[in-house]
Design brief:
β2 (29-33), α2 (38-41) and β3 (48-49) form a beta-alpha-beta unit. The longest helix has 16 residues, at 10-25. The chain folds into 2 domains: 2-150 and 333-343, Rossmann fold (3-Layer(aba) Sandwich), CATH 3.40.50; 152-329, Glycogen Phosphorylase B (Rossmann fold, 3-Layer(aba) Sandwich), CATH 3.40.50.2000. It has a 7-stranded parallel beta sheet with strand order 3-2-1-4-5-6-7, sandwiched between helices. A 6-stranded parallel beta sheet has the order 10-9-8-11-12-13, with helices on both faces. By secondary structure, it is α/β, with parallel strands linked by helices. α3 crosses α4 and α8 (195-206) packs parallel to α9 (225-235). The protein has helices at residues 10-25, 38-41, 56-63, 78-87, 125-133, 152-156, 178-182, 195-206, 225-235, 249-255, 265-272, 304-316, 334-343; strands at 2-6, 29-33, 48-49, 67-70, 92-96, 119-122, 141-143, 169-174, 213-218, 240-243, 258-261, 277-280, 299-301.
Length: 349
């Protein structure tokens, strides 16, 4: 058996990487398309396939896979095009979705046609229900857990909770490039807020808790760190805190008191780890970004006038906060389950 892996953006790449690892550990023949974020984060000794100047069809022909495991991106269509080319030639395809948005849109190619994989793997029951509501056929859906979270339970055991220093309560603030991805006011894809708005609102409200709080800001891998630093400097006033490095994110996630942000998967991870979590999306006007707010116990803000009172309540005591710790084990075998679905020899759709 030979598997071909391909992805585009950060989230998709990180969902695919653990599946590649387990396939290699089982001595399965593997080819990984060196494209997008996976090409930067995957180990150099992986069996890479260089695809510059190759068409999707020629990539499939060159690699001759028995199955294609891929993760899509709304803005980067190569993975979808390769999967579609493989599917047209009878090759089994497994799509891995790393979040809860744009279930159907991400399967539409440049020509406007929709490609449906043999398996559409989603992370939980909420994603399953939402995918069905977005016209993904139930027959192709499989709840597998999220492969990128497979090691979260084991990772937790390596850290001590609330590893604060100097008596300060650490809050992880997770940034993301909303302005760069969806634009500001006037853009047809504007979320109704930007990361600048959210950080400013967070900092203004958190001033009353500055003596006991340290804010540790994690920029998204695609963000300009200087831009994030400049905004933090503008808005921080009396707050303690700093921008953390990429190599610090995992430890801070496990040792912080709580996690604040917008839509990042890190908020979901914080919820799984029984951390107080708040999603700040004031003025939200784009459907599909509210999924984190459907988690019981997550404080969700989508109206501007509610940001300050909700955040104050969260920082003060987080009364009523509940966690998703009971769902943590769901993701432990996710990578193995995706691999099993790729090898499944049942009838194609």
């Amino acid at each position: 058996m030979r598997l071909l892996f391909v992805s585009g953006d950060v989230g998709g790449a990180r969902a695919i990487i653990p599946v590649v690892d387990i396939a290699l550990a089982r001595d399965i023949r593997v080819g990984v398309v060196r494209h997008g974020h996976i090409g930067r984060e995957g180990p150099e000794d992986w069996p890479w396939i260089e695809v510059e100047d190759m068409s999707p069809a020629s990539i499939v022909e060159h690699s001759k896979p028995d199955a294609i495991i891929f993760a899509t991106s709304v803005d980067d269509r190569l993975a979808l095009e390769i999967a579609s080319a493989g599917g047209q030639n009878g090759i089994r395809t497994v799509h891995v979705l790393d979040n809860w948005t744009t279930y159907a849109k991400r399967l539409i190619g440049k020509d406007g046609a929709q490609y449906m994989p043999d398996v559409y793997a989603v992370m939980d029951d909420l994603a399953y229900r939402q995918a069905v509501s977005h016209d993904i056929p139930a027959r192709v859906l499989a709840v597998t857990g999220q492969p990128a979270l497979a090691n979260l339970a084991a990772e937790r055991r390596r850290y001590n909770d609330n590893d604060g220093t100097g008596g300060l309560r650490h809050v992880l603030f997770v940034s993301e490039p909303a302005l760069g991805d969806q634009g500001g006011p006037g853009s047809p894809t504007y979320r109704g807020y930007t990361e600048v708005d959210v950080l400013e609102g967070f900092c203004q409200t958190a001033q009353g808790f500055a003596e006991q709080t340290e804010v540790l800001i994690a920029p998204h891998p695609r963000e300009d760190r200087d831009f994030v630093e400049a905004n933090w400097s503008r808005f921080r006033n009396s707050l303690h805190g700093r921008i953390i490095g990429p190599d610090e994110v995992r430890k801070v996630l496990h040792t912080c008191w709580g996690v604040a942000g917008m839509t990042s998967i890190l908020l979901y991870e914080g919820w799984l780890l029984a951390k107080p979590v708040i999603s700040l999306q004031p003025g939200l006007s784009v459907p599909g970004l509210e999924a984190i707010g459907e988690r019981e116990g997550v404080v969700f803000v989508d109206r501007r006038e509610n940001l300050s009172p909700a955040l104050k309540g969260w920082l003060k005591s987080c009364e009523g906060c509940q966690s998703g710790a009971g769902e943590l084990e769901r993701h432990v075998n996710a990578a193995a389950e995706v691999l099993r679905l790729a090898a499944f020899s049942g009838e194609k759709k």
